[in-house]
Amino acid sequence: MKRPVGVHLLNAINGLDDGDAQRPAIRVEHDALFVKIAVSDDGLGTYEGDFSTCFRKRPALARALAVGFAGIAHGNQRKSVIKIEQRIKKFCDRFLDGIELSFSKSITSVSEVDRKLTDQYLEWLEGKLKIAVNTSATVETLSETTVVQHYNTIKNLFEYLGTTEFKDDLNPRLSFVHNPVPGAHHSIEHRKPLSEQAFRLLRDACQTEIKNAVQMLELGRSLLSKSPPEIDYGSPSVTDFSSLRVCLYAYMHADRNNLWTSGSHLKKAMPGFWRASSGYHYERNFLRQHLHFTSFNIVAFVTLMQMDFLFDVDSHLGISWDEIGDSPFTDQRMRIAAPKGRGDVLQVKTVRKLDKYYFSIPNLLHFLNKYSDLTRPLVDVEFGNKVFIFVDSHGRAKGYPSQSDSGIFQRNLTAFAKYKGLEHFTLSQLRPTARTLVGSKIGVVKKLLHHRKIETTETSYDPPSARQTTHESISFELAVRERNITSQNKVETRGRGLSRIEKTAATPGFNCLDPLRSPILGQVEGKMCSAYGICPNCPLATIDRTSSRAAYRLQQLHERLRELQLSSNEQRWAKLWHPQLVALREWMTHFSEKALRDGKRPVRAVLRG
Q: Which of 74, 101, 375, 517 could bridge 37 with an S-S bond, Cβ 3.0-4.6 Å?
């Protein structure tokens, strides 16, 4: 007579240390298999692994893998436990499925796992073995170190099974490679940054989504600011819910009574609203966008703010309002301080409070605080003080536990990128992207990314693209310096603190599209143009029409040309400088009224502005 399913699983872990605060527990329910183990970073916290998919396909093998998981993961940190579980599932659910589809070989027990299979597994991880996989599975390219981690997890699992009652079931021909990828620990895998174009497209998509989200929330609040109408929420008539205002109040009534846990609850309690919000008058997602941040538009806030913060991803997702306050040095700045999960580092960012830019950090925080008022009473207590809270597609209020502990954010991020037509990205990529785009010294980047040791920055955040940016920046500054020297300081009269684009043109106030290929007679290709005063009539010249500093400099140039008209040879003036004066006056008509008005202030005030 066969033993009941799961009995021998409990016996198999009897060899574990009796001193453990919480012993592993394996639970079988119908066609589901769960393993509950202790995790070390939550005191007496626990984690429950779910091996149900494997159990339904290969029950005997899943039982053994569950025991192995309990043996090698019990007592580890939660993040490590999750990674171990994912690697075991990948072996069982993807690799073994692929072997069965490709070679018609079904592996259903530990006795069928031999050296040939483990060699095939290593080749598959390395990308050398092509097998049929589920069409819904994503294609991954693993680094050498990741290949080793996946392979050694399965190796450790079977070695542990050799100490349990499964040892007699193991195949005598089972063995593993001692060092699957020699030298992998020496390889440096730099974080992959986004290209400048992808970064700009992502930023624009986030800004567009934020504007749309805020407009809908403002409309919703304006409709709710009026006295509430008399509504029979239980009315079966769909016409009673024809107006947007009535539907918003009805949606809030469903929120307060927790009717989103099941569609049948809503249909039974509010039949008229259920029909009206099922597309008859409005879609429910359209209604919730007027009341809450959603799992879709909250991604835009998270991403745009991370472009500025550059915090560790888990720290960023878990920012609370307690971590935001005034700077200890001045009441003109706001301080955001988030502790990093590892490395004993406090990540600090300060920003100017009175920043009128629509997408400034203070303004985004204002939106998040103001329009989360209806969501905060609905969310679990642990997320009640979090900055990023939202309502999912089923109407449930949520927050982000962390990127590692939950796939919620990754799913939201993937959906956002797909809908916006962006290339797939992760929040972690924004940190190396900042290194590449900024091109600063490695020590500056260390502070920018909140690293405790500079070795971390050098190892993972100094890819060739970042070094190339640094080299280009140095080369540009050397070229500017050379122009300054050769022109005997005639060109560089604008002082410090200028952006790169402001340094391109030879004439203050102008910008140049290609300063190394000047069309001006006498200039040398490959060297920065030094034709001071000739920019107004040059086809490569541009201006920033909103810059008061540029407006002041062009006004200043206009005065110099008028002085030159009185002192210059008439023929030389007519041939060389008069066309510049005419072109300059045309340029000055393109400035905004504010730039021209501010440009008339004294130069020090303009430069400070």
A: 74
